[in-house]
Amino acid sequence: MNVAQFQNNLIAWYQAEKRDLPWRQNKDAYRIWVSEVMLQQTRVDTVIPYFNRFIEQYPTMADFAAADEEKILKMWEGLGYYSRVRNLHHATRDVVTKYGGIVPADLATMKRLKGVGDYTAGAVLSIAYDLPVPAVDGNVMRVYARLFGIEADTFLPASKKVFEQKVSETIAYDDPSSFNQGLMELGALICTPARPQCLICPVSEHCKAFEQGKTDVLPVKSKKKKAKDQFVVTAVIKNSRGEVLLQKRPEKGLLAGLWEFPSIEVGAAEKQQLGHAQFGMTGMLGFSLVDFRQMVQLKHVFTHLIWHIVGYAAECEAVPEVGSPMQWVSVVDIGGYALPVPHQKVFAAYLQNA
Ligand code: SF4
User: Fold this and answer.
1) Cβ distance 11 to 175 under 8 Å?
2) What are the pLDDT digits (tens) for 24-44?
3) For residue 164, is pLDDT > 80?
4) Which DSSP symbol is given to 223?
5) What is the pLDDT averaged over residues 61-83?
6) Cβ atoms within 10 A of the Cβ of 195, count?
7) Burial of 342 by CB count in 10 Å (0-12 exposed, 13-18 middle, 19+ buried)?
8) 222 alpha carbon to ligand 1 midpoint, in Å?
């Protein structure tokens, strides 16, 4: 491959065709960092309104670092993968206290920040500071596997190094920002997973997979493990004051720190039926429930896990005492609590049935 020609073709195409995205308005490292964190596992169209609201509320890193975590989780509601924003919050606090609020322009320092891996560090340093650092994610691996005929299994974490090495060898030192963004843009718009548009691709003359007719066999990707099914019973429980019960999830693990309606994992679909569900819920709460009724059934897919949820509504007498991590919350205040999407759906069903 003529590497200089490849770089020129890619950068010229990127400059001419790049989408007008809000985080591309300037080279502010904080904005770029926020956008990169949001874009992990989430589509551009979904991210745009979140990004705009986020920057409106927290225009500078100092604003964000000083913000209350509950408010941040609330703003992130619906984007999923909440540990991303908790880590970002933690990391920006470190940047404010240790580095005077300036994102460090150095790979090793950047990678010491919470939640910042090779990809995020590479993206921020190359886009904001024009440093020639690779930013390799699934999209870039796909593009490089095809361009260079690399057959390393992109499902295996160890393969990432192979791709990072290749990008390091071929990155444009005179414009790493446009080069890395060009690769990302090419992967998003042209060199897509199914049916890449090779006939209009700006770098097709350099591409091994195109030349050898291998675009449908590259990248090599071994099968993912099947996601595990988890059967969950949840209930919106109303007390005599008309308040409902919420519980806070643990500070670590899936959906850490978010609020939800009291829930139990029951092991099998049969155990989600009304009789079992009421028995289990009463046992967990330690007070009796009346008018226990099914409202909704839904499925929520995480990366390695599928929640099958049956949502019930119930009432209880008086106002039973509950301790942390549970609390009674007025229905009108629920909007102020960060709930994961499936529990927002359960609440919507509750309001419809009320
Ligand atoms: Fe991807 Fe086709 Fe372009 Fe090669 S020629 S980089 S396979 S779109």
Assistant:
1) yes
2) 999 999 999 999 999 988 899
3) yes
4) P
5) 91
6) 8
7) buried
8) 21
Q: Are 95 and 101 in contact (CB under 8 A)?
A: yes
CA 187 to ligand 1 centroid distance, Å: 9
- Residue 341's DSSP bridge partners are none
Q: Which two tokens stand for residue 252?
A: 């670590």
pLDDT at 63 exceeding the cut of 80:
yes
CA of 194 to the centre of ligand 1 (A): 11
pLDDT score recorded for residue 78: 84
Q: DSSP string of 126-163?
A: HHHH--------HHHHHHHHHHHT--S-TTSTTHHHHH
Q: List all residues 6 or more positions away from 216 whose beta carbon is below 8 Å from its beta carbon.
A: none
Report yes or no: 152 and 163 within 8 Å, Cβ to Cβ. yes
Question: In the structure, what pLDDT confidence band is assigned to residue 15 with cuts at 50, 70 and 90?
Answer: very high
- Which protein residue's CA is at the shortest distance from atom 4 of ligand 1? 207
Q: Are 250 and 256 in contact (CB under 8 A)?
A: yes
* Nearest one of 82, 65, 81 to 73, comparing CA atoms: 82
Beta bridge partners of 245: 328
CA dihedral sign of residues 306, 308, 312, 317: negative
| 190 CA closest ligand 1 atom index | 8
Q: How far apart are CA 263 and CA 2, in angstroms?
A: 59
Ligand 1 neighbour 146 (Cβ under 6 A): yes
CB of residue 192 inside a 6 A radius of ligand 1: no
pLDDT for 297-326, tens place per residue?
Answer: 999 998 789 999 999 999 999 999 998 899
